[in-house]
Specification:
Keywords: Phosphoprotein. This protein has 264 residues and is an alpha/beta fold. It contains 12 helices and 5 strands. α11 links the parallel β3 and β4. The longest helix is centred in the N-terminal third of the chain and has 17 residues.
């Protein structure tokens, strides 16, 4: 099997991580392309002493670490999102965010995470603890849940409330979601892809975003379909079945990049 064939199954999930880390599909996918370009340019430098997924993320982390303390690449347009990110980076270090996302969202062990970010397992534990402490201090938001499966909706509602956020409502169809968003503007949306009556969470979110800006986390059992890098796709994505820690990390990261949550 060629190296390209080994890496292909892992690319969607690297895109998920990169988008969550940068708060942008455009920027995250650009970092993934840069990592792939580095592998193509010097395949002999690809880490072959570890499995393909770990090696791929290792190359990505080297690219990320080389970009001026995590400022965006020079060829990426600057905007408010980057200013927001820098403001929050003053309180939670990029390394802490990486450690949390790698363990909670990507499922790497403490040892593998230490390898990826060039530190020790003990330091990874400290970094994750620092990130979780910052989450506890994070500005709370009003959250709209768009989910038609009652058990999953209740689980999400519990997680959201345990994090200190308020739930504005639970919608099970596209029309309900739009109506609830209009009635009480949320600060964050958690949206399933497939809803009751065969409506789409993606369409519901498009309708909501047409009226006002709000960070969105999509929830799907088929993440690969929304992580192709070939069209406009979600920045934040949770895979079903999800872990509590994954939802917690995704919510924290989405709010991290949202201007509405930056304290005055």
């Amino acid at each position: 099997m060629s190296l390209g064939q080994e890496l292909a199954p892992h690319l969607p999930f690297l895109r998920r991580y990169a988008r969550a880390l940068t708060g942008s599909q455009q920027h995250g996918d650009a970092y993934v392309r840069a990592a792939l370009e580095a592998i193509v340019a010097a395949p002999q430098d690809f880490p072959r002493d570890v499995d393909a997924r770990l090696g791929l993320y290792r190359v990505f982390e080297r690219i990320w670490a080389s970009t001026n303390d995590n400022d965006e690449r020079a060829d990426m347009p600057e905007g408010d999102r980057e200013g927001i990110a820098r403001a929050r980076l003053a309180r939670i270090t990029p390394m802490s965010r990486q450690a949390l996302l790698l363990t909670a969202m990507e499922g790497f062990t403490t040892e593998d995470t230490a390898y990826l970010i060039d530190t020790t397992p003990e330091e990874v534990g400290t970094l994750v603890a620092d990130a979780l402490a910052e989450i506890e201090r994070q500005t709370h938001a009003d959250v709209l849940i768009i989910e038609d499966e009652p058990i999953i909706a209740m689980d999400l509602e519990t997680i959201v409330r345990d994090l200190g956020h308020d739930v504005t409502g639970v919608a099970v169809t596209r029309d309900e979601a739009v109506a609830q968003a209009r009635a009480q503007r949320p600060g964050l949306v958690l949206a399933d892809i497939q809803l009751a009556d065969d409506s789409s969470g993606i369409d519901a979110v498009k309708d909501i975003l047409a009226e006002f800006s709000v960070p969105v986390i999509f929830i799907t059992a088929f993440p690969e379909r929304l992580l192709t890098g070939e069209r406009p796709e979600p920045t934040f994505l949770i895979t079903k079945p999800f872990q509590r820690a994954t939802v917690k990390a995704a919510i924290a990261q989405a709010l991290f990049f949202d201007s509405a949550t930056v304290p005055a």
